[in-house]
Amino acid sequence: MMLLKRCNRRALVALAAVLLLAACGGARELPDLSDVGDGVATETLWTASTGSGSASSAYALVPAVEGGRVYAADSNGRVTAWDAESGERLWRVDTGRELAAGPGAGGGLVLVGARDGRLLALDAENGEERWVSGLSSEILAVPQIARNIVVARSGDGRVYGLDGLTGRRLWIHDRSVPVLTLRGSSSPVVVGNRVVVGQDNGRLVTLNLQDGEVIWEAPVSIPRGRSDLERMVDLHADPLVFRGVAYAQAYQGELAAVGMGDGRERWSRDIPGHTGMAADSRQLYVVDDQSRLWALDRNNGATVWRQDRLQGLRLTAPVVIGGHLVLADEEGYLNWIAPDNGDLVGRDRHGRQPIQRPPVPDGDVLYLLSADGRLAALRLVED
Fold first, then answer.
1. Which residue intervals of the chain are DSSP H helices?
2. Which keywords accompany this UniProt record?
3. Cα distances (Å, whole numbers) of residue 38 to 59, 282, 334
């Protein structure tokens, strides 16, 4: 079930209705996939525990791979670093806070966001605290760092630029948010000297990394309907920037391709969703709100194929690795899809806990984090 957040009392009735419908809806009917084999062969290089795992599906706790290390965090405040090749634990620290987002890694820092609005920067070498900066509300988006500027987004929609050395605030981008939004935030994407942010009002904005000034802003989806619930068009999925084009998808709205140079829409499709996207040289892959996986021509948005057999499962965003397409799900499976025709070529299970965040690819290795905090490094085994 998608979690929602209220900005004021006007949304109380709508929120109560959503919760009532969810409670009365009963168990979902899961698809029968018993005929699907194991698919793409993988070998487990190593496994480890991050600690307690994630306390909420709204939390953006996802592994980060940087400089031959893997970093991960749990809700209870622990942040850990492992050697990416061997799985040897290099350090672990307890921040003493309930963590909800991260880590982001780069520039010698490991960045995590907390429920109380604190952004923590740790030394990537040993986990020692470098600095702490207070934002305006809980942090549910993965912090980013580029050119010694940390970019973080708070749950109330504000985007911050902070000095990577000290945590001092350099700029803030502040936009009002709708009365009712999904709980959680899309993470900002940094490309060169630009920051791309999907906003809760259905608009995609690009900011200057150095000063936070708006370069362009483009509507992806326009709110429609009479109630606050009907008008929700959060850009909840992380934006994807690929070869000069930004892709964004709205909850209860559209999927759009926008040129990074001028902010003009290239094409738009009525494919609502909130999970995420991936791309390769030819196609864009996206999951819609019915857990159907689409492959679209990146140039014009035309449908190449659609895979419907995973309907009923809660899926992660798709990931492209080694010429393969893979999505994880709530049952602990990796679902392997043929990029050329969309066939479901295999499923393999990695525990019985939900996998709520997409696997993280690095070369021919996937890093997989389950909701209970089990971290696994899997290598593709080619025939």
1. 12-24
2. Cell outer membrane, Lipoprotein, Membrane, Palmitate, Signal
3. 30, 26, 9
Q: What's the pLDDT tens digit per position in 128-148?
A: 999 999 999 999 999 999 999
Evaluate whether 159 touches 203 at the Cβ level (below 8 Å): no
Instruction: Give yes or no for a contact between 320 and 339, defined as CB atoms under 8 angstroms apart.
Output: yes
d(CA 330, CA 371) in angstroms, rounded, equals 9
103: preceding bond cis by omega (within 30 degrees): yes
Q: How far apart are CA 164 and CA 126, in angstroms?
A: 17
- How far apart, in whole angstroms, are the C-alpha atoms of residue 16 and residue 18? 5
Q: How far apart are CA 330 and CA 335, in angstroms?
A: 11
Q: What is the pLDDT of residues 88-115, one digit of tens each?
A: 999 999 999 999 999 999 999 999 999 9
Give the pair of three-digit tokens for residue 329: 């799900």
Of 145, 269, 249, nearest to 199 by C-alpha is 249
List the chain domain ranges: 38-53+283-383
pTM of the model: 0.90
**What count of residues does the chain have?**
383
Q: Which amino acid is at 29?
A: E
CATH top-level class of 38-53+283-383: mainly beta
Q: Give the C-alpha separation, 183 to 150, whole Å.
A: 23
Six token digits for residue 251: 């909850």
The single-letter code of the amino acid at 320 is V
